[in-house]
Sequence to fold (544 residues):
Amino acid sequence: MPKISTDEMNIKINEIFRQVFDDNSLSVREDMTAKDVEGWDSLTHVNLIVAVEKRFKVAFSTKEVMALRNVGDFLRLIEKKLGH
Amino acid sequence: MPFNSLEYFVFLWAAVLCFYAVPDRAKRPVLLAACYAFYAFWNLHFALFLLSATAATYFLALRMECASRAGEKRLCFSAALLFLLGAFVFFKGLPLWRQSFSFLNHVAVPVGFSYYTFRLLSYVLDVSWEKTRPEKDLVSFASYVAFFPHLLSGPIQRPEEFFPQYKTLPKIDLELWSSGLRLILCGLFKKLVVADNLALIVDNVFGHSTQYGAVPLWIASYAFYLQIYADFSGLTDIAIGSGRLFGIDSPPNFNTPYLAKNIQDFWRRWHMTLCRWINDYLFLPLRLQLRNAGDAGMVLALFISMLAISLWHGLSSGFIAFGILQGVLISVSVFTLQARNRFFKEKKALSVLRGFMGPLVTFHLLMFSFIFFRCATFSEAVGYISRMFQGPLQFRMLNMGLEAKAILGCVLALALAEWFERSRFTRTPVALRLSVYYSAITGLLMFGRFWPKEFIYFKF
Fold:
């Protein structure tokens, strides 16, 4: 996969969030947690992980996912996987 | 020393007095001593087992942190997991093992074992996933595991919820104190007035179900669904309320479960700290592992999680049937949710009906499910349910143990207790506030069943 900029990555992430949570007005923030998004439960959480893995062609381990505390942690993990 | 006994309240107040009377530096050791004294009152062997489980987990978690090699870290993690899960399976399956090994008849299941083992397991998993650092102070860690208000019946508190509050002790928060006392009153009311009165019908009808017609069987199944909630949430209220007297608050265990709009919503509102545990430490890791297996992976993860919730209560055919039934119901609900949402989005007029029908259908699905929970075996529950649909439907209340108006009184009392618990009294006029307390205490004295009837969830 060609290297993408952080802005480009954030736009894509936002698209994925809107798709998974079926909400076109959603804009992700670094401090956002599952409590801030309607419908973000353990079922949709895995859908989100799978969608990100497919879009960016990366793979996360269970330990990496379990250690996430907010969207900021998730963004940094994706950046790490993409080699930023 | 059950929570509905005089001995418990004498012990609680003695512990509170000692805790606030001693100098600050002695408060934590005094609290820990009170926790172990409380547990040793039940059985000294139980207290020794708790101490050994605490010490083993404490040292293995510290070793995990210090281990330089991944292999050593994995070894410590596996040893802690094996010890805790092995003990859990051993004690939970004790009635089964006793059938083959008679010497096990002398072994008793430690009271509250299911709750503190899950607290220890979540700690080990959090340290392993690097979500939390191991606690270095043994007194703090032992207090987290053995905190006596939560020891026997939960809530299953997380390390990150307990330690920040514990470290700031002893801060005196009068608001927390008064809300704790209010919760204790509410819990006693739910247990003594609602649960123990409904228990008269439930014990009579479920105990001799073949002698009753369809109508009493229906009434008893509704009564049990109300009883188990009043009993367990009452128990939790007393536990959380007692904890608040020491300045330790806890997450709630129930959130109006009868209003759940579907099965998955119910399991977010019922025994919330156990369901949250299963969700975070079993369902989510399992679902992640099975994420490429499509819908089959989802169904498998849901089934295993629901079975785990069910088997946490014990290894019996009734609990297995309860777990499988929940697995089926939640899978159907999850897979049809999107289609149902689309359908009601298109047919806006029917949305109002959905708001009413969703909770009603969910209530009845759970009411039937809890028959498997109450009956000792699967076949007994099936027999009970089949007799519910055999006529004639005669409205005879013979020998049910409670009159119709008393049953309605219990329903009303539960609704009032719920309102009482959820109301924030800070802005209520003093006269109204005192009237509510006076009515609750009068109701407790007039209609409470003051016999030592065990809490249903004490045996888990």
